[in-house]
Amino acid sequence: MTTKIHAGIERMLRDIGWETSETRAWTEKSELDPRVLEVMRQVPRHAFVPPERVDCAYDNGPLSIGRGQTISQPFIVALMSDLLATRPQHVVLEVGCGSGYQSAVLSRLVKQVYSLEIVPELAQEAQECLSRLGYGNVTVRQGDGYQGWPEHAPFDGIIVTAAAPEIPPPLVEQLKPGGRMVIPVGLPYRRQDLLLVEKNRDGVVTTRNLLPVAFVPLTGDHGVVDE
Questions:
Q1: Catalytic positions
Q2: Is the pLDDT of residue 226 over 50?
């Protein structure tokens, strides 16, 4: 690891800590799971951004990865990973693979990650990148994330990295009792909120509004048509 990359990672972790403190009135979190922070330290974010953006890979902001998609802000990646309350034996679903960065982070926290990406080129590139870097417990498929991945359900956790106009019912159905889903809900260029959806052991679903966010829209048959 070069000195420049190491310095960037340390700066990123400090920024995550600062953001955690600044948003605790919404999230009720004064700090994130140390397991998540250690994985954020280990996963090479610079390997998941376009070559021309490598110099700003560890800045605490989203970056364009082309085709109208972004790699999420490091703080948001860390927060959403923390909110899933993962365990090593868990199997999780990701909707919106993008470049594969969030997938890589989750892969070091759980047993298996199934990730859906609606853009065919991104799905292929993400799977190739993840395989090349040794994240062998991530399976990427091109498909409409609104419908989930019923063949591998139910999931211990579901993470959605694009804003949906509503919580997709198929994803709620595919969430295991005792499981959690973290999802941004809202319209592009208008208010979006990060929601924590929990299904208890009896199958009762509750939703908690955490904080305002800004994500690219979920697309597909049930997604948002950008205005």
A1: 72
A2: no
